[in-house]
Amino acid sequence: MPNYYNKDLYKILNLTYEASKEDIKRAYKKLAKIYHPDVAGSDGDIDKFKEVKDAYDILSDDEARKKYDVLLGFYRQRLEKNASKTTYKNKYDTYVKQAKKHSQKPESFSNSINEALDNLFHNKSGKQKQKEELKTPINGSDIKLDVNISCFEAITGTNRKVNILHTQPCPNCEGRTFINGSTCSMCNGTGEISLQKKINVKIPKDVKQGSKIRIKKEGNKGLYGGKDGDLYLIVNIEKNPYYETEGMNILCNLPVTPFEAVLGADITFPYIEGNINVKIPPMTSSGQKLRLAGMGLYNKSKTKKGDMIITVMIKLPQKLSKKEQELYNELKLLSNDDIRADMNAK
Ligand SMILES: [Zn+2]
User: Fold this and answer.
1) Distance from the CA of 161 to the center of ligand 1, in angstroms?
2) Which terminus of the chain has fewer CB atoms gathered within 10 Å of its CB, N or C?
3) What's the CA gap between 291 and 305, in Å, rounded?
4) pTM of the full structure
5) Which domain holds residue 124?
């Protein structure tokens, strides 16, 4: 017999895979009349008739049909279609009745019930179930995603809505990549589909630059009973002109006026909630650092706190009045300290 496993025998007979034995017989008789030269005369097509005859020989033989159907997946499709016709309620009643009939002892009764329920909800025959159990579970991979937060959000904690694109086994072919011998149209033969999902994520307070936040089971889905991957958010704390983080410390660039730097000052500057007061000693230069102990971020176990490290940044006022300009001019004439004198030191 020629190799028919790459042909759709049902199509040759203009039938669907659900065709009964009677349907097959009827279809064959109808087509034989059209193509058999002895019946159709000169309009006959002996090659076409041979094809119809072979299709009929296979599909009308129960064993040959089953073998063909199993190989091309029609068998499974028909099983599933028939199964879906019966309601779960009916199936459940039948299983319970069977379980009761086959057991007298309460414990074996409950085992049978469990087995019945298992079969019912997994909708698989024993053989199919066995086959699936033999498949090696494949764990879903983790997804890594960068998330940008501000320095203040790192200190206070925040919430983010993140869009994740995760893959899962194709529901159409169940990751097999093909159906009935042809490429699955839902996943184009990749065996997986991508799904977009929006999830709300809580970013805890005192989070550090580069921290990984793990969200369990929001990664790619596992296959054949494998575990789902996790989602990892990698925290990126954005710099701004005044604040950034460095490990547990918060670095602050503090603008001060030339006269505050010269004379010293009590400076108040805005922070997350309320203000911070800091004393600038007289004759403070640009770049000089001040440390505010315990004003940084907590460590993971909340037993230690980092510091706030302030860097003084002398900033000129943007507008000078005529009077101010005159005073600066006077200062210039008065000053005789050469602040660049040691620049030629070797
Ligand atoms: Zn598929």
Assistant:
1) 30
2) C
3) 13
4) 0.54
5) 86-133
